[in-house]
Amino acid sequence: MARAALPGRLTWRAATLTEERWESATARTLVLDVPDWPGHLPGQHIDVRLTAPDGYRAQRSYSIASAWESKTVELTVQRVDDGEVSPYLTDTLQIGEQLELRGPVGGWFVWRETQQTPVLLVAGGSGVVPLMAMIRARGAAKNKTPFRLIYSVRTPGDACYADELARRVRDDPGLDVKFVYTRKTPDGWPAPPKRIDVATINSYGWPAEFTPDCYVCGPTTFVEAAADILVALGHDPKRIRTERFGGTS
Amino acid sequence: MNPLDGNAMAGDLRELFTVDVTAARYTCAGCGHADAVATLILWGQEMGQVGRCPHCTDVVVRVVQAPDRVFLDLRGSVRLELPLAGS
């Protein structure tokens, strides 16, 4: 795994948008060409900086969605309607255009293939992005670590990567995915909409005795609720890693 | 405004240090709680950020960006414990 960041300080660099995909009506995946990219670990993020003609700058962090095994740098950006940066990334930036970024950064909310214990991923809305990078890295490496993803979305149409997740559940041994719908369920779903609760994590997570590594990513209230449930179920707080973002789910 | 967490400080700190400081373990000067810098509750914007202890809410770290320099105030942290490369 000779893909640690190079020594030295980090600087901003130019990236070019080469491909795009819509993951839902409001989430767009940007495939970026970044010359001399040093590689990244699943869970790491980059900072994007936009500069207006008058010099005003806005900076945001976005999780990397792709595993470096695919040799691409992909972001999935959820549009926040009153946001300063995300509407530009989802709706304005065109193929062939450039943006400024620095990264990869963050060495805490990452999964390493050398970890030996089962993994529980808990995603709220676009919090799924860094967790998807972990799932993709695991799949690319044909790693056998048992993974479970509990993915909370408002409606079926809000789920990112739905087709790929279904394919990976079939093709990547040891991966399970459980969707939770908070506002509207698919037709024929056996339960009414609800938020993630103790019963959800108890039923679809791992028992605390398995000492799983837990990764929780989503809006602040979601992250705090899920982390509290994990602690209440007996999970070691040191094995619960959280990442929260500012937008609403 | 919703707070972020210490994960979002990684870029700014990585411009100053050659190691990832968000994976470092801080010890809060206020309550003695120790955890990863990534778990701090982060308030502020790019020009100035305040990281608070999630346990006692005391300020552990401040980062202020001026046009030509950065001010890093760590008086709320008794110590930082940094993993060395390869560990």
TrEMBL record, chain A:
> Ranges for the FAD-binding FR-type domain?
10-111
Segments spanning the bilayer are none
Against CDD domains, the record matches this protein to: FNR_iron_sulfur_binding_3
Q: Name one Pfam family in it.
A: NAD_binding_1
- What UniProt keywords apply to this chain's record, in alphabetical order? 2Fe-2S, Iron, Iron-sulfur, Metal-binding
Q: Needs which cofactor? A: FAD
This chain's protein is named Oxidoreductase
UniProt organism field: Paractinoplanes durhamensis
Automatic annotation (TrEMBL), chain B:
Q: Which domain of life is it from?
A: Bacteria
Which source organism?
Paractinoplanes durhamensis
Question: Which InterPro entries does this UniProt record tie to the protein?
Answer: DUF6510
Recorded protein name is: Uncharacterized protein
